[in-house]
Specification:
Blueprint: H1 10-22, H2 42-48, H3 62-103, E1 108-109, E2 149-150, H4 156-162, H5 166-175, H6 182-187, H7 202-208, H8 211-237, E3 240-247, H9 253-261, E4 277-282, E5 291-296, E6 309-312, H10 317-322, E7 327-334, E8 351-356, H11 364-373, E9 377-385, H12 392-404, E10 408-413, H13 421-435, H14 437-441, H15 443-446, E11 447-449, H16 485-599, H17 617-662, H18 683-687, H19 700-709, H20 714-729, H21 733-744, H22 746-770, H23 772-790, H24 793-863
Parallel strand pairs: 3-8, 3-9, 4-7, 9-10, 10-11
Antiparallel strand pairs: 1-2, 4-8, 5-6, 5-7
Helix pairs in contact: 1-3, 3-8, 3-16, 3-24, 8-16, 11-12, 16-17, 16-24, 17-23, 17-24, 20-21, 20-22, 21-22
The protein binds guanosine-5'-triphosphate.
Guanosine-5'-triphosphate binds at residues 249-255, 268-270, 272-274, 358-359, 413-414, 416-417, 451-453, 473-475.
C-alpha cells in the first residue's frame, strides 16, 4: 500500500481549492453552475476526473482518496444546502401557520381512544403512539368515514354544540360530515397533540379543550418544532464530525486513537486508565494552539468561555485522565503531523474529532451509551480485544448502539497476540453477525483486525524521545527491522492492515456522515411536512366547508332578514291600523251611545218611574233625575263593556300577527280584560248637580210642542195657554191678548172675556198639572243634557274609553314591534357574524391551499434527496 508522500498531491490541491471555493460554506451554493455536482460540469470533472470513475478498490494513493472525499463532500454539500433551504422554508411555513392559528384557530383532528383492539390499526410508523382513536364513535361495520374533526371555533352553533351533552356530541360526531379519518389523525407525528389528560373522556376532553386550548397546544408544538429545526440546521451547518471510540476495558482504545493520530497523545497502560472522555480535535480549532481543556462537571463547554473549563498542557493529559475527581471530559487540541491525504483528523474535507471513551464496565456503560446516543456522534468505533472477543458488557452496548445508531465500525485489536488468526476472525465475525447483521454484511469494510500498537507513533510532545522517529509501544513495535527482516515484513503487514482500516474508516466517516448528519434533518422535515400538509389539507377542506356552510346560511338569512325588515314596517302599520280603527270605532260608538242615552233620557220607553201624583211631584222629580243619570251612566258602562270586547278582539288580532311573524319568540303578554275600566262608576252624579225647580214642572216649550202635536185642543187651549202663560209667566201678555182678540173679534171678546179667562185658567192649570209626567222628564233631560254638554261629558267619556283601549292595545303592539325589531337585529347580527366567518374562511382557505401546495412542493424537494444512494461516479 502506498502511503501519502507527505505533500499535498496535485489533484488533492485542486480539489481542496475547489472545496474551498464551493464547499457550501463560502457563500456559493450548489445551484451555481460551476459548483454544481452535475456529471459533466466543470466541478464534476475536477472532482472525479470523469474518465476515471472512482472505486473503493482503486484507492491506491492519496490523491484518489482526496478525490473520493471531495466528491463526497460536494455531494454532501448539495444535499445539505437543499436541506438547509428546506429547513428555512419550513420554519417560514410554520411561523405562518402559527400566526394563522392565532387568528383562525386551526382545526385539529382528534381521535378517541378505543378499547376494542380489533378496531385498532397497526401504526404505519414505528414509535408512533397509537393511543387515541375516535373509532369508539364509529359504527364498527362502517367503511372508514372521514374522521371526526374538532375545531376550536367557530360559530355560535358550534359553541352551542360544544355545550351539549355527551350523547348529543356522539350524535353530532356521527351526523357531521367527517373530514379527517382516524388514520390521518394517526399519521400526525410531530404535530400530534397529546390529548391524554388523565381519565377524561374524549368528549369531556374536547369540551375542556376549547378553541384556545387546542390552538395554544398546537402553537406550543409548532414552537418546539421550529426550535428543533433550528438545532437541526445548526447541526447540518456544523462541518465537524465526531467519532466515538469505545470498547471493553484495556481493549486498546487509546492505543488505537494514538495510532490513528500517529502520535502518542493519549495515555496507554496495561491496566485500565482512561476514566474521562477525551475528545481529540485539530489545533486549528483552537487558534493552532496545542492544549487540553478540561471541562468542568455540569458545565456546557464553550471554548470562548474559560469559566467552563481549565487549561492544561498536552503533557498533563496522562495525569488528568488517570486521576480525575473534577472532570468527566476534556478537549485535546493537537496539531496533526499527517498530511490532508492521510490524516483523519485534518483531512481537508471534514473536521473530525476522535473521542476516546473510558473502557466499558458496569460504571461506565450507561454513561458511554448516553454519550453515544448524542446526536453529534456520527460514528461509533467499537474496539474489541482479539483475545477476549465480545464480553457481556460489550454485547449489551453493541446491541443498544446498533438499535440507536446504524453506524458501527468494529476494530478487533491486538490481533498480533493471536496465534490462530483465521479461527479468531471466524469466531469474531460469527459474533458480529449475531450482534449486528447489518455490520456483518459489510464486514470487509466495517470489521478490521489490527494491531494498533504496531503503528509507529511520535512520542508525546516533550516526552523522553521527543523526536518524530517511528516508535511503537509493545507488540512488533520493539522489533528492530534491520535485525529481523521477517519481523520487518510482519510489521509492514500490520501497518498495511491498519492503513486499510484507516481508509475504510475515513471513507466510512465521510460517507456515513451525510447519513448521520443529514438523515435526521431529512426525516424530520419529511415528518413535519407531512403533518403540515395533512393539517393544511384538513383545514383547507374545513375552510371550504365553512364557506359552503355560511354561504348556505347567508342564502337562508338574507331573504328572511329582508322579509323581516319589510314585515316589521308592514306589521307596525297593520298594528297601528288595528289600534286606530279599534279606538275610533270605540270612540264613535261610545259617543253615539252616550248621546243616544242622553237624548233619550226622557223617553218613557227607557224611563221607568211611576208618577205618584201632584203631592209627591218633588220626589218624583228626584227619582226621574236619578233614573236619567243612572241610565246615562249605564250607557257609559255599556260602552265600556263594548270597548272591552273590541279590545279583546284587537289584542287577539295583534297577538295573531305576533305569533305569525315571530312564532315562539313572540312575547305573549298576559292580558286581563277584566281589569279595564275599574274606576268608580258614581262619578257622574258627583260631576253634575241638577237642582229641581218649580219651573221644571212647567215646561212651556214642551207643552207647546205637545199642544201643536195633539189635534183638537182648540182655540180655547191656545187662548188659555196664551193667557195662562201670561198670567203665570207675568210678561208679554199684551201680545197674546191681542192675538186672542184678533181671533175672537172685538164684540165677542167683550162678552166672553171673563168666563173665558176663568175657564182658560182652570183648563190651563189642570192641563199643566196633568202634563207633569211628560214635561218634567223633558225638562230634566234638557237640563241634564245641557249640564253634560257643559262638562263635555260625551267626548270626555268617549276619549277616556278610547284612550284606555289604545293604552291596552299599545302593549301587545309595542311588544310585537320590539320583537320584530329584535328579530331583525338578531338576524342582522347573525348575518354580520356569518359574513365575517365567510371572509375569514375565505382567507383561511387561500392560506391553507397555498400551504398544501408549498408543503407538498417542499416535501417533494426533500423526498428527492437520496441519502442512501452513492455520489454519482463513485462505485460503492
Ligand atoms: N499486543 C498488543 N498490545 C496492545 C495492542 N493495543 C494495545 N495494547 C496494549 O494494551 C494495553 C491497554 O491499552 P490501552 O490503549 O491503554 O487500552 P484502553 O482500552 O485505552 O484502556 P482503558 O481506556 O483504560 O480501558 C496497553 O499496554 C497497550 O500497549 C495491540 O494491538 N497489541
Amino acid at each position: 500500500m502506498t502511503v501519502g508522500s507527505g505533500s499535498t498531491s496535485e489533484h488533492a490541491a485542486r480539489l481542496q481549492a475547489l472545496l474551498d471555493k464551493d464547499s457550501g460554506y463560502g457563500g456559493s451554493t450548489v445551484d451555481d453552475e460551476a459548483g454544481a455536482l452535475i456529471p459533466g460540469s466543470p466541478a464534476w470533472d475536477s472532482a472525479t476526473q470523469a474518465d476515471r470513475p472512482l472505486d473503493s478498490s482503486s484507492y491506491t494513493n492519496g490523491s484518489h482518496h482526496a478525490q473520493a472525499g471531495a466528491v463526497h463532500q460536494l455531494w454532501y454539500n448539495k444535499h445539505r444546502v437543499t436541506l438547509e433551504r428546506s429547513i428555512n422554508r419550513v420554519i417560514e411555513l410554520l411561523k405562518g401557520l402559527q400566526e394563522k392559528n392565532a387568528s383562525w384557530p386551526a382545526h385539529y383532528p382528534t381521535v378517541q381512544r378505543t378499547d376494542d383492539p380489533a378496531l385498532q390499526r397497526p401504526s404505519s410508523r414505528p414509535g408512533f403512539p397509537h393511543t387515541q382513536s375516535m373509532l369508539e364513535d364509529l359504527p364498527t361495520a362502517s367503511p372508514p368515514h372521514p374522521g371526526a374533526l374538532r375545531r376550536s371555533l367557530t360559530s355560535l352553533e358550534d359553541h352551542a354544540k360544544a355545550e351539549s351533552s355527551r350523547d348529543a356530541e356522539k350524535k353530532r360526531i356521527n351526523a357531521e360530515p367527517r373530514l379527517v379519518t382516524p388514520q390521518i389523525a394517526q399519521e400526525f407525528s410531530i404535530l400530534k397533540l397529546d390529548l391524554k389528560l388523565g381519565a377524561l373522556h374524549q368528549t369531556e376532553l374536547v369540551h375542556s379543550l376549547e378553541k384556545n386550548s387546542i390552538a395554544s397546544l398546537l402553537d406550543g408544538k409548532i414552537s418546539s418544532s421550529i426550535k428543533h429545526l433550528l438545532s437541526l440546521r445548526e447541526r447540518i451547518e456544523d462541518r465537524s464530525s465526531k467519532v466515538l471510540v469505545t470498547g471493553d476495558l484495556n481493549a486498546g482504545k487509546s492505543t488505537f486513537c494514538n495510532a490513528i493520530l500517529r502520535r502518542k497523545i493519549l495515555p496507554e497502560d496495561q491496566q485500565p486508565c482512561t476514566s474521562i472522555f477525551c475528545e481529540v480535535l485539530h489545533a486549528s480549532e483552537n487558534n493552532g494552539i496545542e492544549e487540553v481543556h478540561a471541562v468542568h462537571k455540569d458545565a456546557i463547554y464553550d471554548r470562548n468561555d474559560e469559566t467552563t473549563y481549565d487549561v492544561f498542557s498536552i503533557q498533563d493529559l496522562e495525569k488528568l485522565v488517570l486521576d480525575n475527581a473534577t472532570y468527566i471530559q476534556c478537549k485535546v487540541y493537537i496539531k496533526d503531523i499527517r498530511t490532508v491525504d492521510e490524516s483523519l483528523l485534518n483531512n481537508g474535507v471534514v473536521d473530525i474529532a476522535l473521542i476516546d471513551a473510558p473502557g466499558l464496565n458496569s460504571d461506565t456503560t450507561k454513561t458511554t451509551a448516553l454519550f453515544a446516543r448524542q446526536e453529534e456522534i456520527d460514528v461509533v468505533v467499537f474496539v474489541v480485544s482479539a483475545a477476549n472477543h465480545f464480553t457481556m458488557t460489550a454485547r449489551e452496548f453493541l446491541l443498544a448502539a446498533a438499535a440507536e445508531k446504524a453506524y458501527l465500525f468494529i476494530v478487533v485489536n491486538g490481533f498480533d497476540m493471536i496465534r490462530d488468526q483465521e479461527r479468531c476472525q471466524k469466531m469474531i465475525l460469527d459474533q458480529v453477525r449475531g450482534l449486528s447483521p447489518q455490520t456483518y454484511k459489510e464486514a470487509s469494510e466495517l470489521v478490521h483486525f489490527v494491531s494498533s500498537n504496531a503503528i509507529p507513533t511520535s512520542p508525546p510532545p516533550g516526552g523522553p524521545d521527543g523526536g518524530d522517529s517511528g516508535s511503537s509501544s509493545g507488540g512488533g513495535g520493539g522489533d528492530d527491522p534491520s535485525d529481523d527482516p521477517k519481523g520487518k515484513g510482519k510489521d509492514k503487514e500490520k501497518i498495511r492492515d491498519f492503513e486499510v482500516l484507516e481508509q475504510s474508516l475515513r471513507r466510512f466517516v465521510l460517507e456515513k456522515r451525510a447519513k448521520s448528519k443529514l438523515t435526521p434533518a431529512k426525516n424530520y422535515l419529511m415528518n413535519i411536512l407531512n403533518d403540515v400538509n395533512s393539517l393544511a389539507t384538513v383545514n383547507a377542506e374545513v375552510a371550504q366547508s365553512e364557506i359552503d356552510r355560511v354561504t348556505k346560511e347567508l342564502e337562508e338569512i338574507e331573504p328572511v332578514l329582508e322579509s323581516n325588515k319589510k314585515a316589521k314596517d308592514e306589521i307596525s302599520a297593520e298594528t297601528e291600523k288595528i289600534i286606530e280603527d279599534t279606538c275610533s270605532d270605540v270612540y264613535n260608538q261610545t259617543r253615539a251611545m252616550i248621546n243616544f242615552s242622553i237624548a233619550h233620557a226622557s223617553d218613557p220607553t227607557f224611563l221607568d218611574v211611576h208618577y205618584p201624583g201632584l203631592l209627591s211631584a218633588f220626589e218624583y222629580a228626584e227619582e226621574v233625575k236619578e233614573a236619567m243619570l243612572s241610565q246615562i251612566a249605564a250607557s257609559v258602562t255599556e260602552c265600556e263593556e263594548s270597548a272591552r270586547s273590541k279590545t279583546v278582539v284587537g289584542v287577539n288580532a295583534i297577538k295573531q300577527l305576533g305569533i305569525l311573524h315571530l312564532g315562539d319568540e313572540y312575547n305573549n303578554l298576559n292580558f286581563r280584560p277584566d281589569v279595564m275600566f275599574r274606576r268608580r262608576r258614581d262619578a257622574l252624579t258627583r260631576q253634575i248637580e241638577i237642582p229641581i225647580e218649580l219651573w221644571d214642572f212647567l215646561d212651556w216649550s214642551s207643552l207647546l210642542q205637545r199642544q201643536e202635536k195633539v189635534a183638537g185642543t182648540g182655540m180655547a187651549l191656545t187662548v188659555a195657554t196664551a193667557v195662562g202663560g201670561r198670567l203665570i209667566g207675568g210678561y208679554g201678555w199684551m201680545d197674546h191678548a191681542l192675538s186672542a182678540a184678533r181671533i175672537v173679534g172685538n164684540d165677542n171678546l167683550r162678552r166672553l172675556i171673563v168666563p173665558a179667562i176663568v175657564v182658560s185658567l182652570v183648563a190651563a192649570a189642570g192641563y199643566v198639572l196633568n202634563q207633569i209626567p211628560q214635561s218634567l222628564p223633558q225638562r230634566l233631560s234638557t237640563k241634564i243634557s245641557s249640564q253634560l254638554a257643559a262638562i263635555d261629558y260625551v267626548h270626555a267619556n268617549s276619549s277616556r274609553i278610547a284612550g284606555s283601549v289604545r293604552k291596552v292595545l299599545r302593549f301587545p303592539a309595542d311588544s310585537l314591534r320590539e320583537g320584530l325589531q329584535r328579530s331583525v337585529e338578531q338576524l342582522g347580527g347573525r348575518r354580520e357574524e356569518t359574513l365575517k366567518v365567510r371572509a375569514e374562511s375565505a382567507v383561511a382557505l387561500k392560506y391553507f391551499s397555498n400551504l398544501v401546495r408549498d408543503s407538498a412542493h417542499q416535501r417533494a424537494a426533500v423526498g428527492g434527496i437520496d441519502l442512501d444512494g452513492h455520489p454519482p461516479g463513485l462505485a460503492h
